[in-house]
Amino acid sequence: MIYVGIDIAKLNHFASAISSEGEILIEPFKFTNDADGFHLPASKLDSFDKTSTNIGLESTAHYGDNLVRYLVAELYKVCVLNPIKTSQLRKNNIRKTKTDKVDTYVIAKTLMMQDDLSFVSFYDLDMMDLKALGRFRQKTIKQRTRLNIRLTTYVDQVFPEIQYFFKSSLHQNSVYALLKKAPSPNEIASMHMTHPANLLKVNSHGHFTKEQAKELRVLAQKSVGANDSAISIQITQTIQQIELPDSQLDKIEAEMTNIMKFNDSVIMTIPGIGYINGGMILGEIGDIHRFSNPNKLLAFAGLDPSVYQSCNFQDKTTRMSKCDSRVL
């Protein structure tokens, strides 16, 4: 068996290879983080049987993701190692030397010492995409929520009565369309009646009538809100900012749906699970076969109960540990 250790960095990587007897087969060499660089280790490994070659690298942020995808596409067996495992081997090194070249040997030896190796598959790559998309979706939703709160604050200052008219929510397409055209009550009051009526009707799919538009115009005429052009500008700009994460979320969720449909996971048979929440769960869990029993999966999700016991006392009212993935 051949073990290849790759030390990952932002611009340049180092790699070496050893046999299962510890013999150095390929001295450490540097290659760049680009297409030409990726071809170099592949060409050096061409003389070895891919089924007998295990490639290991540490989990280091996102810098190694492209290389992993390339190697998996080339049908190499790739294992992403926990840095804690390689760190333990470094501590046992008498000389306490740490360089990129030495690290390649440490990674290769760590790979060789593992009893059970888990190799990256195309399914794992899809799960990595789901994880990235799911987390980006969460950030985008938080960003949109902050913008919604900001818009509500601005509207409260210039046209507080409008929230009595749009009782369901201020944050809907019909309201945004109206406020982009007329962000102050004075502008709404001075509009020709057909203009706000058409805006509301078209953007609410016929939900609002002309009579309701008249009611809104009366509210605008009687509004006690401040006629502040600065706030009006902030209203229109904030609505445009809100529309960006809205379109981003549509694209994110469409891609998550495509990945979920392609993999056809059994998680979709659970009542209440859809493509989006199912994709977020799978993205965080990854390959469920990594967990030998349900308790380990619960612990990974932070849903295992914390335990407090001392001598003859044992607390029976402890909470869930919540020590891992916040998304789960």
UniProtKB/TrEMBL annotation:
GO terms of molecular function: DNA binding; transposase activity
Domain of life: Bacteria
One Gene Ontology biological process: DNA transposition
Pfam families linked: DEDD_Tnp_IS110, Transposase_20
Domain Transposase IS116/IS110/IS902 C-terminal, chain residue ranges per copy: 265-325
InterPro entries with a match to the protein in the record: Transp_IS110-like_N (IPR002525), Transpos_IS110 (IPR047650), Transposase_20 (IPR003346)
Domain Transposase IS110-like N-terminal: 4-160
PANTHER family, per the entry: TRANSPOSASE FOR INSERTION SEQUENCE ELEMENT IS1111A, TRANSPOSASE-RELATED
The protein's name in its UniProt record: Transposase
Taxonomic lineage from the root: Bacteria, Bacillati, Bacillota, Clostridia, Lachnospirales
